[in-house]
Amino acid sequence: MKIITNISSIKFISIGLAISLFCCLGFSYKIYHDFKITERILNAKKNEIISELKKSKDSLELAISENSLLKTDLIIERQKVTNLLDEINNTNIDLASLIKYKTEINRLKNIVASLTKEKLQLKKNNELLKIQRDSTILVLTQSKKYNDTLVAMNEDLNRVIRKGSKISIINLKTSTLKQTKSGDLESTDKASRVNLLQITFMVVGNKITKPCEKEYYVQIIDSKNNIIGEKNTKNFGVMILNYSYYSLVKFKNESLEVTAEITLENIKKGNYFVNVFDKYNLVSKTTFALK
């Protein structure tokens, strides 16, 4: 009877051990299975991180070539990415490493996004500057064309009143004439016929200019730099002026025309220059030519 009882106990123990072994095997398999799944997920994430790091490195390479101001800082960031790639390729990734790499990738993405935004803004600013530059060039070109058409007038008008009491000379004109024996005057530009030169200019002031007497010295110079006319000399201390004639003008706050006639003899063809001086200051000039 005792032997039968021992046999029964052994059977129960054996069954219990078998069940325990089965459970252990099942639990081990589940752990192994879960480990493999986790390993596959981590490897997939690792490859994803490597891909994103390479993209970030390429973006930094492009930024380095386009941004000289931040080049040093960008090179440092590129080296950080290179170091991370070396580290992740030689390391079995775990959850802690995954979080670290993800954080670094997000930081790099923010840097690249900021650089991209800055690049777009710089491009926009450059386009705006180009438009402004083109507009300025257009305005300057139009202004130059306009000034070219008015250059003769500006020669006189740029001497118009700069200060309240200044008197100016404008509309300096010359007429080359032939005076006949009967006293008639004929306009001509032939040197062989000209015997009279008429010079006219306007003296202009303003309401606050005090009445005064003005002496204007006129030079008539031929193409060989010879003085035509009376050939007088005036010493102003700072300079000696050679002139053809002078006009004494009594100015009374009203514009007036001043005209002088110079007799010419043995005039040669060529270009002639007429200069009007207020003391030793050149205030107006013009030219004429004889054939």
Automatic annotation (TrEMBL):
Annotated TM spans: 12-32
Domain of life from the UniProt record: Bacteria
Keywords: Coiled coil, Membrane, Transmembrane, Transmembrane helix
Keyword Transmembrane set for record: yes
Coiled coil: 98-132
Stated name of the protein: Chromosome partitioning protein ParA
Natural source organism: Flavobacterium psychrophilum (strain ATCC 49511 / DSM 21280 / CIP 103535 / JIP02/86)
